[in-house]
Amino acid sequence: MGQIRLQGIRKSFGALEVLKGIDLDIAEGEFVVFVGPSGCGKSTLLRQISGLDQPNAGRIHIDGRDVTDVGAADRGLAMVFQSYALYPHMTVRDNLAFGLQNNRMPKAEIASRIAEAARMLEIGHLMQRRPGQLSGGQRQRVAIGRAVVRDPTAFLLDEPLSNLDAELRVSMRAELAALHARLKATMIYVTHDQIEAMTLADRIVVLRDGEIEQVATPMELFNRPANLFVAGFIGAPRMNLIDAAEAASLAPGGLPRGAAWVGVRPQNLRLDDAGAELKVDLVEALGTETVLHGQLASGTRLIVAQAGQVDAARGDTLRVAAEPGKLHFFDDAGRRVEP
Amino acid sequence: MTMQGEAPAGAGNPAPQQAPARRSIGAVLAAPVGLLAHLLDGPMRFWQRLAGRGGMIAFFLLPNMAVFALFVIVPLGINVAYSLSGGTQLFLPSRSFVGPENFARLLTCDNHLAPATCRDDLFWIAVWNTVRFVALQVVVLVAVAMTTALILNRSIRARGFWRAVFFFPVLLSPVVVGLIWKWIFQRQGLLNWLMVEMGLDPVNWLTDRTWAYVFSVGISVWAHAGFYALILLAGLQAIPRHIYEAAEMDRTSPARAFRRITLPLLWPNLLVVIVLALIRAVQVFDEVYVLTGGGPGTSTMYLTQYIYETGFASTLRNPGVAAAASLMMGGVLVVLTLAQIALTRWRDRQ
Fold this sequence. Notes:
heterodimer, A: alpha+beta, CATH 2.40.50.140, 8 helices, B: MetI-like fold, 2 domains, 71% helix
């Protein structure tokens, strides 16, 4: 249960084409994260899957059944909204029960499902409160609880953590991961936060301008980005991209055929007396890591991340070199070139 | 607004390099006010030293309170005085004091449900007419306003146009409303012309008791529904779209979504609409008076018309009785208003 197949999904709003033909297979029980910059179409894609929106073209299958023309109510999915979208005039208990009552479920069954979800999400003590009397984190738990009690084919989560403060976000992230491990249900999760994507996903779908740039596991995305966009989008600080002609000073050795750009992650640059000269203009000392921003003699900007603490200051000149075998190559069109 | 020749205040130019060549109209208009403030500064400071901060607050409130007293409190007092006086004289000092006689005249009945058994049968006819009017008008008005608001809240074609169409009657003077519909319903009016054209017999709409009542309700609904629809529409638009989407994901049928989500969330607006509609329905007068003149007979004579005719229009005018009747009507309106405030507070506490 919970296998989802998207075929050629297109969606336009007026003249603006937001989704330009999306093909994707999501396996049963998989945690898939849609990630991409604002306006890339990730939320729109989720809404097509939910049935709250109708695509202009393409088919959507859930467990082999074509649901393209089936309404949101009958797709068996549950959604957690960014704004939580709890019913403000109902108590937490009624919020959880409402969808089950719509299905004419027996009262005893409703009560046991609510009790189970309340225990799982630790919201039992909030049952008689209204959403207005809850904190942001508590509302988020209730919103997730409302989805959990439905026992849906798949969970759709639209930036569920973006309204929480940083600390709460980290703890809710861990809880979501635990929830997925426990329920083993298919989850589709939309976020613009690559840390959420990297930590939660079985597979990440990177979207840009309504098209899929790459679908891969988090580590594969990090280690073998399919193009310049993915290379720049995944990983913090961003991957350094250097004109191939300049790369020799950092990484002696030949370039693969067709390589126009060389990418090197800040973590894969090290201080090396034989390396290229870097004039440092910003030092970010994070304690566990030091991030140096600077310029090569050619004017190319470079970010270097060193584990631990580095004794450097603005204005210093350091020598840096890339670790062998840690370079990424891209052709003129920005596509990955294997070394 | 800027004077000719002055550069417009550009968003991309937050810090103009040179002062404008001419002063803006606002600055020109503000100059005398500034001068006045400058001149008053000294006396005001002196006055504040004498009166203290609390005294200054009272001082600034005084003009408003004076207007309120002059046009509300004083007339109310005069009205009470009239209600306790008798005779046909209009000049208050030449009227005789009769105590609660006017109220007794209005309230004395063998059976309040049968106006013919009352000392002032016309008053009770007007009371029961008003009750019948209010009962039907408020229900129909709220239903029409609600339906209109629900339709206008959907993404229909030319929504702005339809919103304007439904709000337009609200802008008309009640007399104009009455006249327009009179041209339609009168014996040689538009409706009868249409019926004759279609081969039907003309009907004397406004001389039929039932039709006159129905039309008096109908035109007042037509004239006011747009205003209440607007209040309800504002309430509907304040309900986040995501809540309906969550309900859709929860497999909520449209009827159940209306009952369990729209109605409870719209309740504050609905309450305001019901109470305002009640208050205005009790006061119904102008458009119906123009349309039917209270007829046929007394079948559409409502309370305000009774007060108007008793106090001003009849040959044997009786300002004392009119004043007593208007005070009683005012009492009903105060009760309705207090009920609205109590209900709103009760709901806010929930």
